[in-house]
Amino acid sequence: MILPCRNNSPLHDTSNHTMGQMGIRNTQVLFIDALCQSSHLDLLMGYHSAYQGPFLKTQNFILKSDGPLPYDQRHYIAIMAAARHNCSYLVNMQREAFLSPDVAGDKSWLQGLHCIPKKLRDLDEINKILAHRPWLITKEHIERLTKGKNNWSLSEVVQAIVILAHFHALSSFVFGCGINADMEEETNGTAVYSANGDSGVPGMKNGQTTVETLMQKMKSISEQRSNEPTLEERARCFQTECNGGELPAARRSVPRSDLSHFVTDADFGYQDFARREVSEIPTFRIQDYSWEDHGYSLVNRLYNDVGELLNEKFKVAYNLTYYTMGSKTNVDTSMFRRAVWNYIQCIYGIRHDDYDYREVNELLDRDLKEYIKAVCCYPDRMTKEDYDNVMREFKYSEKVHVTIMILEARMQAELLYALRALMRYMT
Length: 427
Fold this sequence. Notes:
This protein is mainly α and 427 residues long. 55% of the residues lie in helices and 2% in strands. One of its GO terms (biological process) is negative regulation of TORC1 signaling.
């Protein structure tokens, strides 16, 4: 397997993604197929067609294309993942797919985890850990799945992990953009917070950074790049962000009664990485284990072609740009996008040694950091006020793009921890 070169990685590809005619036709086919199941989800992603294509291809591949897991188990694993975040929208979508004639899942499984085969139930521990504290996953978790009477093959483990990570992260997107089943019923199918075309929300909250100020900060940082911090200073700034800075205390999720039968240990939730109970767990240094140098090749070796699809999706989400910020045009947004991506992964204890985390504090105001952390870690606790309070001068499509970045950076973080554990088990 050929590894992608550095300039193809999510953090180094600076190309502006476009789609050829064949790619557009393929995306339209997938879009029409998915629209029947998830119209609100796809309509929101439709703001960014260059991303929508790779997203739909990946989701279609892991649920419907060749792979080691039976189709009914794939959809049930998706239900388990979405239920972990109380995402009834995705649970209902996957429940419908599970019962469809093409899949013909066992209806009794929908009564809860106690009704499914032990092999599938054994995945629950990894589901719980990946959803909330992925740094806790170890090679022993992989070993417990692959040993014994109801053992998993390594290929099955990888496909299951990809599905879990995909639907954990997609739950963040669903709540982050305001999609959920309850709002659909209340608003006759319009399940978004405030999609006012492509205009920003008027008014600014005290302390929130304006687009003009943000652009000035990016310019200032660029001009001061000669004053590079030491490795110790970088580590200290990273630790500050891991600690959550001055962000408010965590908001606990309350399990929905209609989804509780898909969830065990409901009190287990996100904990700030810097406050982790197992203090000997070190920071995950991306220079030691990265997606492009390690994760990509491992996942592709055990689950053919999925690495290519994931790699493209990560790249597009990270590099997507229209060179705008709100009403401003011809703007290089790369510095802002990198701050968002690295802050998301910082929340999960992943550190990029070559990044100056002071930029996160400069470019992401308190409201935006609160929003990102809530969407990543407590997505079902999101409120309309949380959503409306961020990026008020930005276009609606730009807010959707930030939420797409949350989806992808979070998914990549989960995969990095899981694939590193898998590699350690194999060596």
